[in-house]
Every structure is written in C-alpha cells, then in structure tokens.
Amino acid sequence: MSSTVPPTKPPASGSPQSNGKSPPPLYSTRFKILASVLVTLAVGALVVAYLSTSSGDDDDGVVASGGTSAFVERLLPGRDTQVVQQGSVGIDLAPGWSGTLVIDGVAIPAADLVVNDALNTVQFTPGPDKVMEALPVGNICAQATVYELSTGPGDSRAVSWCFDVI
Q1: What fold, for 72-165?
Q2: Residue 82 forms beta bridges with which residues?
Q3: Residues 28-45: tens digit of each pLDDT
Q4: Under 8 Å between Cβ of 102 and 88
Q5: Is the C-alpha dihedral spanning 93, 89, 164, 162 positive or negative?
Q6: Strand arrangement of the beta sheet that strand 114-116 belongs to
Q7: pLDDT digits (tens, 9 = 90+) for 86-116
Q8: Parallel, antiparallel, or unpaired for β 82-83 and 156-165?
Q9: d(CA 143, CA 147)
Q10: How many whole angstroms from its chain centre is CA 111?
C-alpha cells in the first residue's frame, strides 16, 4: 500500500524552507537612481521653461520715454502680434491717464478716437469718413502720447509699439 502525498506550495520568501533568500529585485538600484535623476531634470526643465515665458496678456516690455510703464496696462494689439485691416489700435491706461495716437505716421484726429474714460482706453478703428479707411498691410508702428489728466498734455510721455496687419 502506497500513500500519496499531496503537492505542496513552494516555500515563501524569507521562510525557513527558502534559507532566507528573497527573489531578485525587479529593478536594480542603479536604474532607480538614474530614473529619479532624469525625472528630476525633466521637471526642472519644465519649471524653467514656464518661468521664462510670458503670457500674451502681459506687456512688461512697455517702457515709455520717462522710463516707467506704470501708466500702461495693455497695448492694443500687443507688440509683435497680428491685427486685421479693420482692427482697432489703441492703448489701455492706468486710471487718471489719457492720450492721443499716431498710427503708421498718421496723427489720428480727436474726432476719430474713441476715448473711454471709464475704462481708461484710447482707441482708433479705421472706417469710412475717418482719417484711415483701413490699416495698411504689413508691419506698422503706433505711438501713443499719454499724459495724466491732472497735469494735462504738457507733461506727456511717448509709448511706441509695432505689429503686423494682415
């Protein structure tokens, strides 16, 4: 008479039957260190790239002849951007400021300007019966002469920027 012995499971790792040996690691220590360094460098590069770019809404490069940009909130259109021939050109100023515009060497008469004191904007949109029916195609420049309302145009500052008309 023979007895059958039921099959047994292999000994668990670290059990007395396996002599304390554990299975080999899935990844080597060298690989783990290298992967950690590469991930850290990639995250660092993304942070540097993010910090070195500026959003299109900020125009930190606006520097007037007085050396300050505290009175300019935004250029319309922004520097080195595009606008259509019937698009508006103007400047968004800090409260208490106003100004005039010259576009591509053409002084825009006060009657053609849209000055919104509540929003502190000075804008020109070309059209019929205006000094310009359309903006000229190509790279053009605008200049705003801005001044504090309390002091008047006698103490003005110039802000210039260029953009493409398509």
Answers
A1: Immunoglobulin-like (2.60.40)
A2: 164
A3: 889 899 999 999 988 888
A4: no
A5: negative
A6: 72-76, 89-93, 121-124, 114-116
A7: 999 999 999 989 999 999 999 999 999 999 9
A8: parallel
A9: 13
A10: 34
The answer to whether residues 28 and 36 touch, using CB atoms and an 8 Å cutoff, is no
Residue 59 structure tokens: 């125009």
Torsion (CA) 13, 18, 20, 26 in degrees, nearest 10: -40
CA-wise closest residue to 165 among 141, 136, 145: 136
What is the predicted pLDDT for the residue at 132? Answer: 94
Q: CA-to-CA distance for 101 and 88, rounded, in angstroms?
A: 12
**CB distance 99 to 93 below 8 Å:** yes
Contact (CB, 8 A) for 156 and 135: no
| SS3 assignment for 9-64 | CCCCCCCHHHCCCCCCCCCCHHHHHHHHHHHHHHHHHHHHHHHHCCCCCCCCCCCC
> What pLDDT, in 10s, does the model give residues 44-70?
888 877 776 644 444 444 554 444 467
